[in-house]
Write a structure and sequence with these properties.
Radius of gyration: 24 Å
Distance between the termini: 12 Å
Structural class: alpha/beta
Number of strands: 11
Mean pLDDT: 89
Shape: globular
Strand content: 5-15%
Number of domains: 3
Order of helices and strands: HHHHHHHHHHHEEEEEHEEHEHEHEHE
């Protein structure tokens, strides 16, 4: 995800610089190139300094992403003296990640925070020049790719809809032409870049879907409101900084240090990593964390991964069930080699793939391979709380030795009436579900596994006649 954002922003920067040299943009190509180099160098250097000062892993990708966003929104220089403003913006952005970061989690989008501070100090501000007709096609394609990758349409679309509606509504009140306003906002304005690249930054967005919808609608209304208080008006960077505060108060506020306690093989190519957190973690069964594991020569996916928590909130340890198959990513190579006592960092607790609040609702779980991990968390929780629910699990694996957590499913059957149907070396199809689950029409289906599998099962259930409202799919980006 981070690499996609980095590559996308680099592509936008490259296009902008070329357009500058060709005279298509109103900024000289040489100054745009100097601006990009200055910001990349400043953000990289000061991110390194602050990371050493605070003894946290260096995240090069993050510093480059921030630098490129600043490049695309800050007023480009026209003289050497202007570069000091860009350097200052880079310093402020990097500093905000470390100095305004309770529990090691930064509150504000670094680029928006830096632009806000620069404006409030009277030194300049963000021009948001990336929001132009010339850059629109590239921003549209790259922005939508990012939103699709991180599955944040539930945030972007409410923001976009509310932003356009608000713009037109307040424009009509002020006797402006609606179609002109729509064009200026969508095609020749920063709303797409703001909504796809900056608004969706994972760390500073709410963790749950309903909160993300509220967040998107609220910021969209503010974005298009055209409200102003004397000389002050809600520029995009101000709106995002204000929204970040809301997100911080409703979200997971910690960035945790966890120590590896044990590592055990629990099935073919599947290992359980048991980490002990420095402090207890409160989460719902089925949620996930973003993990950071620094290592040399990271591959194209970088040093971060999302993994579903396999342990229950009733357990002290944080457990991960991870498939270490060949060829492994650089992250998994490093993970496979860490020893007991070594540390990893985790944050961004989130996820809506959790048990229904209605304890009487009949459920059907479908798992493929390592997609069993969120169900392990749920089932262990139900056992420990002695909560009986009508749940049937369909667990698909290629071979019997790939079954993980079988002991737990046996215990669940004995204690809480949980039922497991193992589907080995064959496909879970409609006929199997109808045969093993006569009351399937009455159930809500949960699906967890590789993305292609989840999509296939969702389509199959829809063909069977299962309502979209009765299908819950896992956001499980941990496969690699």
């Amino acid at each position: 995800m981070y690499r996609l954002v980095l590559y996308g922003l680099a592509a936008l920067a490259f296009i902008a610089i070329i357009f500058g040299f060709l005279g298509i943009l109103p900024y000289a190509g040489n100054w745009l190139l100097i601006s990009a180099i200055t910001l990349l160098a400043a953000c990289y250097f000061f991110n390194y300094i602050f990371s050493r000062l605070f003894s946290v892993p260096v995240n090069i990708e993050s510093s480059f992403i921030t630098a490129l966003i600043l490049f695309l929104i800050m007023t480009p220089p026209s003289a050497i003296s202007d570069l000091k403003i860009l350097v200052l913006a880079g310093i402020i952005a990097m500093a905000s990640k470390y100095f305004i970061a309770p529990f090691r989690r930064h509150i504000f989008n670094p680029s928006a925070f830096a632009a806000t501070v620069i404006f409030l100090t009277g030194l300049g501000g963000a021009a948001w020049w990336v929001g132009t007709l010339t850059m629109f096609p590239a921003v549209l394609v790259i922005g939508l790719l990012v939103v699709r990758k991180i599955r944040r349409f539930d945030l972007f679309l409410p923001f976009l809809g509310a932003g356009l509606f608000s713009t037109i509504y307040f424009g009509i009140i002020n006797s402006s032409n609606a179609s002109t306003l729509l064009y200026l906002t969508l095609i020749s304005g920063p709303i797409l870049f703001f909504g796809t690249i900056m608004l969706t930054e994972p760390i500073t967005t709410p963790p749950r879907r309903n909160l993300r919808i509220i967040y998107g609608v609220t910021l969209g209304i503010l974005f298009g409101s055209q409200l102003h208080f004397g000389p002050f008006y809600p520029a995009p960077e101000f709106i995002l900084v204000a929204g970040n505060l809301f997100s911080y108060f409703v979200g997971f506020k910690k960035k945790m240090i966890l120590t590896l306690k044990s590592k055990d093989k629990i099935a073919k190519d599947i290992y359980e990593f048991v980490f002990m957190p420095a402090r207890p973690i409160s989460f719902a069964p089925g949620q996930y964390l973003e993990w950071t594991l620094s290592h040399d020569n990271p591959d194209s996916r970088g040093v971060r991964r999302y993994f579903t928590i396999a342990s229950s909130p009733t357990e002290q340890a944080i457990k991960l069930g991870i498939k270490l198959n060949e060829p492994p990513s650089s992250f998994k190579k490093k993970l496979s080699k860490i020893e007991n006592g070594e540390r990893a960092f985790a944050g961004q607790l989130a996820g809506d793939f959790i048990l229904s609040r209605d304890k009487n609702k009949k459920l059907a779980f479908i798992a493929g391979g390592i997609g069993i991990t969120p169900y392990r968390s749920m089932i262990k929780y139900l056992i420990d709380t002695n909560e009986r629910r009508d749940i049937v699990l369909f667990y698909a694996v290629r071979a019997e030795e790939e079954i993980a957590y079988r002991y737990l499913f046996i215990e669940a059957e004995a204690k809480i009436g949980f039922r497991t149907e193992y589907v080995i070396s064959k496909i879970i199809d409609a006929a199997l579900i109808e045969d093993k689950l006569p009351d399937w029409r009455e159930r809500t289906f949960y699906i967890s596994g590789p993305e292609a599998m989840v999509s296939a099962f969702k389509k199959m259930l829809r063909v069977m006649g299962v309502s979209r409202m009765n299908i819950t799919t896992d956001y499980f980006p941990g496969f690699a």
